[in-house]
């Protein structure tokens, strides 16, 4: 019997108050789970900062955990998590 892992394409959009240290705090939930984003874009919009993070192969079970952690960061106003196609890998 083999273990199967499901992966998905994931994109997170975070809108937060722009303050020093925000980018490192936004990346922390990924680093804690040994995930390296494939894309990262940050843009200041007045007193806010919009951060978009993309992963091409994120474990499905981690998607909602990371989204929840992002929403708990002080200064974060909104988190959107989107997932795309699923990929199953047999281990």
> Could you give the distance between the termini?
10 Å
Name the helicity range: 25-40%
Largest sheet: 4 strands, antiparallel
Task: Please give the domain count.
Answer: 1
Strand content: over 45%
Q: What is the H/E order?
A: EHEEHE
Global shape:
elongated
- The count of helical stretches stands at 2
SS content category? alpha+beta
**Radius of gyration using CA atoms only:** 14 Å
Count the beta strands: 4
Low-confidence stretches: none
The side-by-side strand order for the widest beta sheet comes to 2-3-1-4
Question: If you had to describe this structure to a student in words, what would you say it looks like?
Answer:
It is a single chain. The chain has 91 residues and is α+β, with helices and mostly antiparallel strands. It has one domain (21-88). It has 2 helices and 4 strands, in the order βαββαβ. The chain has a 4-stranded antiparallel sheet with strand order 2-3-1-4, covered by helices on one side. The protein starts with a strand and ends with a strand. This is ACT domain-containing protein. It comes from Pseudoroseomonas cervicalis ATCC 49957. InterPro entries: ACT_dom (IPR002912). Residues 11-84 form the ACT domain.
Helices and strands in order:
Blueprint: E1 4-17, H1 22-32, E2 39-45, E3 48-59, H2 60-71, E4 76-90
Antiparallel strand pairs: 1-3, 1-4, 2-3
How is this structure best summarized?
This protein is of the alpha+beta class and 91 residues long. The chain contains 2 helices and 4 strands, in the order βαββαβ. The N and C termini lie close together (10 Å).
Keywords:
91 residues, alpha+beta, four-stranded antiparallel beta sheet, 25% helix, elongated
